[in-house]
Amino acid sequence: MRVFFGALIAASFAQYGVFAQQKPITRNVPDHPLVADNIADPSVVRFRDTFYLYATTDVDAGLAKGGTPVVWRSADFVNWSFDGPLQLGNMDWSKPYTFTDVKGAQKTGYFRYWAPGKAVLKDNKYYLFPTIVTPDDKMGTYTVVADHPQGPFRFTNGTGVYFQQPEKEAEQSKPIVPDIDGEPFIDDDGKAYMYWRRRFATALENDLLTAQGETITIPTKLPGYSEGPGVFKRNGRYYYFYTLSGNASYCNGYMVSDKSPLGPFTIPAGKNIFIQSDTATGVWGPGHGNVLHVADKDDYLFLYLEYGEGGTTRQVYANKMLFNADGTIQPVKVHKQGVGSYRKCKYLPEDNKALSATITASSFKKERVVTTRIDADKEGGDSSFQGIKSISRTFTYAPDNAADNSNGTRWWAAAEDKEPWIQFDLGKVQKLKRCELYFVFPAYGHSWILEKSADGKSWTTCGEQPDLKICSPHVISTIGKARYLRVKIKGGTPGLWECKIY
């Protein structure tokens, strides 16, 4: 290998990663999270011919701080994008609030948007059910409504959720349930129901705004703390799914009812935990998720968060669900390869020239080894292990990760790098139509300059985003002829999940 830096520059960057040019090689890593971002607690719906993904935005800051909420959309379930933040009230998700807690201690907190329940279309309006947490950790599931699946959304009662604003008390919105992870279900007769953590459930009024009748607790085969519940219906049977454990041991069990969405629920035959970690395929803690029925294919998909690097670095994957003749769920074969396209009309794939480019960068972070444990299978079985299993995985942040056809790897510049850039050598001068940039932590926004060159020496600007813009991907069109493209990141997290060049 030939280090492209001069010796002095190379030495100065050695402390946090030196890279070399390599021969062009087509990279294809079989690790396909649904989107190029750290997200969790997914719900996906299809309205007309477009899929919409609502989720918690992770920013590796723990549960005390989340990212700006967005709405991802896709025509094919493979290529996802969002344009701007989800608009809801006047909450600033990045603003710190200082307050005194009940013990008299000074604390700092943030508004947080978690686990939006599946969106519902009713009377030409789109209803969404996010959990909103105030800076002092008061939480509830709210009903918000919009004229479009992407918003802007507004609260259905009051004007918003306020903190340290006593003059807004009369306008304070009230939650539909006073806890997290509210998930709706609409039956074939139009009646609505709500499920939330700790196995609680209730019927809803037709307006989707208030509870109807008493709150029940759904009994399950396996005990313990549970969150992220939901219900789906298949062949007249109601399936209630619930989480157990957490972290890399996160898993989901289920109950069934042939009577109603509120039961009575019974224990199905066979294994009760239908999705859990598989160290052979590298899936850890497939937890808080949701079921999507792709009706035209009659496919049932389970979308779930995966452990990632631990904490709030999670990503979302999808695997197919299969059912036995008696309607019981077969244990899901979890993997990271994705489920492929669900586009209704055929289209010709484009040649992504970045996949065979030689890639260099100003720097990259050192690799990180993550070690944790998975608890024993609560139900046992032939393929289960006893006790606790220690597991580890290694994350790298090298330039090649930015063009390996994977949403699960990324290039990330070193923290000491004050002028981060990444460069793509396409091997020869050619006409380029478009470049798509999928930045790390896109909900924070990015600014950048895209330069092109025929010889790697003389550069001209062919695209620029001068101010922080919240979207993914950032798209640059009509680039023209070039052999080299270079992205200089001026603002935002200095990293790329993926770069696509056409």
Give a written overview of the molecule.
The structure is a single chain. The chain is an all-beta fold and 502 residues long. Helix content is 1%, strand content 42%. The chain has one helix at 7-13, and strands at residues 39-47, 50-57, 71-74, 82-83, 97-100, 106-109, 112-122, 125-133, 139-141, 144-146, 154-155, 183-186, 192-196, 200-204, 211-217, 230-234, 237-244, 251-257, 273-275, 289-294, 299-306, 315-321, 358-361, 368-375, 388-395, 411-412, 421-439, 446-453, 460-469, 471-472, 474-491, 495-501. The strands form 9 sheets. Strands 23, 26, 27, 28, 29, 31 and 32 form a 7-stranded antiparallel beta sheet that branches. Strands 7, 8, 9, 10 and 11 form a 5-stranded antiparallel beta sheet that branches. Strands 12-13-14-15 form a 4-stranded antiparallel beta sheet, with no helix packed on it. Strand 16 and strand 17 form a beta hairpin. The protein is globular, with a radius of gyration of 24 Å. It starts with 6 loop residues before the first helix and ends with a strand. The model is unreliable at 1-24 (pLDDT under 50).
Summing up helix and strand content along with how strands pair, one would put the structural category as mainly beta
Percentage of residues in helical conformation? under 10%
- Tally of helical runs: 1
What would the average pLDDT be, to the nearest integer?
93
* Biggest sheet character: 7 strands, antiparallel
Strand content: 35-45%
Radius of gyration: 24 Å
Strand tally: 32
Please mark out the parts with pLDDT under 50 across 5 or more consecutive residues, or reply none: 1-24
The global form is: globular
